[in-house]
Write a structure and sequence with these properties.
20 helices, Immunoglobulin-like, 39% helix, Glycosyltransferase, 4-stranded antiparallel β-sheet, single chain, 5-stranded antiparallel β-sheet, 650 residues
Length: 650
Amino acid sequence: QEAATEAIPLEDKLVKAGVRSINASFDAEYGGIDFSEVSPNGPKFPTSSKLVLLQYDIESPVAESTSAESAKVLYQTLDAMANGGIYDHLGGGFHRYSTDRYWHVPHFEKMLYDNGQLALLYSQAYEQTGNIQYKQVAEGIIDFVLRELTDPRGGFYSALDAETDGVEGEHYAWSQEELKQILGEGYPLFAEFYGLNDPVRFEHGYVLHRVTTLKALAEKQKTTPAALESQLATMRDKLHTVRNQRQPLLKDDKILTSWNGLMITGMATAGRILKRLEYTAAAEKAAQFILDQMRDDQGHLYRSYRADQARLNAYLDDYAFLVQGLLALYEATGKQQWLEQAQALTDLQIKLFWDQKEHGFFFTTHDHEQLIARTKNAYDAAIPSGNSISTRNLIELTRLTGDPRYREHADQTLQLFGRVIKRYPNRCAQLVQAVGEFLETPADQKQSSLMISPAEAGFAQGSLEQFTENAAQLASVTPGLELLAFAGLGQVTPKKNLVAAKAYLSVDKLPAGKTCQVAIVLTIEEGWHINANPASPDFMVPTTFTVKSNQQVKLSQIKYPAGHAFTVEGFDEPLQVYEKQAVIRGTLTIPAAAAGKAEQLELNVKYQACNDKTCIRPTTVSLKGKFQVAGPGEPVKQVNQKWFQTDGQN
């Protein structure tokens, strides 16, 4: 454990120094990081925590960005792993690490923690690039986990063994003769794509790995990439069926809270990005299993579950990684229960693990069995450190709830490890990322970056609570209530908003048993755009508008404006985007039973802001306002009509 002995300013150059340190260890020839020219033939690991930081850096809007180099390092590494023998091309999922520089021959054990982190990485890489191979790899990971590492009650098992009768890798290896017999006339094509014409590198046979691209081999075969992939997929399925007849590999069927948290994060994110509802549902089922079966009467987590018994006091990693998964589920589903559970567990984590004197989180609880020394770890390894993920969770909870306690604990943790971050940034990549995320979250932020503009609202700027409590006052100043008078969306630095929003109702009171109109006016920073709805290409994140209500008010007939074409180098077709201003309109239906009651509407706008070089992470912002539903016979006036007169443009 190293703690700070001097105050280290939290500034963006710490993030850039960490990114440069990681990029400097890149193997430019074969992909991968932590490469040493002194010992170039050493094993290679996925190093997911570092790759996640590079993925974050690619979206950075900061001037003199390192994002171009980070993109080169990240995508070449993801390509090398996806093409290599470390990825199971028949059954999906990644093996533990590569025993060689070339990613050809792995250590064949498959670990849940690796696959959870890599599912997250490849899903987000697909979201960033539209590269279909990244989507296929992410699906391959999750399909493997659901098929082979999922308990019927929902939890995820820990690992799949590497050995058959004491021989590592035999389950995955093939001889040329066996493959020729199974594939027949298709063998030459399969061999050319999966490296079977090269010398064998593994003592027990060939390990499948891609040695060319679909495009290159399709051109050589005078066919299309899609037709070639269809042929190869049929042969892969045939081989997978044969392999499944071999002696099954042993499973480590422990359900570990921390590793499940990593997989819940990856699976929920993949479900959201890839639009695979069954992935999101499986992640929810796993989370609910842990919450139901792996807590004691006081709500404290257990670490491990096996044979119908939960045991061992949970460690910091268990709380941190599960909370991260719950936050990913909240982003994927919008269900308030996941945010509430994440908050409750974080509050409990602070109570059980927080060092009141020196700050930061201990690895064990205050009432854990007595150890000679209680440690605090800042360094990432095969899994990220508990303090780094805890800090990132605290920052996200600050953004979602506006609770300043979470930001204060995040600040104190970063200050504690400031010297470590400065001296050894490549060893604590997730803390480095936390610094960047911390700087993006203003210290005076209220819930969802909500800010009230005095010029627009007609009264002194105040908090969200002041705004909602003074709704009637605001309505009298601006008839029809300018909902959420001014909201900062996509705030990438404390000083700059990329997208601003105003929302308007067409009436001064909500009409019970009838409908009214709502309009969201988005103003987009010069030089930036957000994706249209529907998005084109379809892998882009569309701008969406949804409403939550405590009086069962329903939003329907949403009308998104038409986007316009925006050409980006590297894309085969232009994007459809909104620039400068976009107005989204919809119809609100108010139940008759709500007459005379108070209503709180929550408007959710999700968007992704981009320029011609980079994209900011997709953002969902919740905007709230209190309203009165008109009582029986109470008149309702039409207001703000200029926003509901369409001219064909918006």
